[in-house]
Design a protein that fits this description.
By secondary structure, this protein is mainly alpha-helical. It contains four helices and no strands. The longest helix has 25 residues. The chain starts with a helix and ends in an 8-residue tail after the last helix.
């Protein structure tokens, strides 16, 4: 039992370590493209059952929080400065990683 837990943790660690590198290798996307992609991935997870209703609700809440933060950044300075863009990129990366983890955690929605 303990060996299985350690193997699972090792596999999860390997995946999480490789995700930022994969994200950096992807071509640059505008903020609007990233938002549309994240929203689409949540919707797909709901449709195919890989996200439970509570998971989807929480992920959509995080998504809305990012949208509000972006709007606040844009209102405060007439656009996004480099730091704000980097901050949003990091937050989008974290949300993307959470969407991936939730869609692959084998907590499928039951019909």
């Amino acid at each position: 039992m303990m060996k299985r837990v350690l193997l699972t943790l090792a596999a999860a660690s390997a995946v999480l370590v490789s995700l930022p590198a994969a994200a950096n290798a992807a071509p640059w996307q505008s903020i609007n493209q990233r938002q549309a992609n994240l929203d689409r991935r949540i919707d797909q997870g709901v449709r195919n059952g890989s996200l439970t209703r509570p998971e989807a609700t929480r992920l959509r809440g995080e998504f809305r929080d990012l949208m509000r933060l972006e709007n606040n950044y844009r209102r405060s300075g007439g656009g996004l400065n480099a730091w704000e863009r980097q901050d949003l990129d990091r937050r989008f990366d974290r949300l993307s990683n959470r969407i991936y983890a939730e869609r692959h955690d084998r907590q499928d929605r039951r019909y």
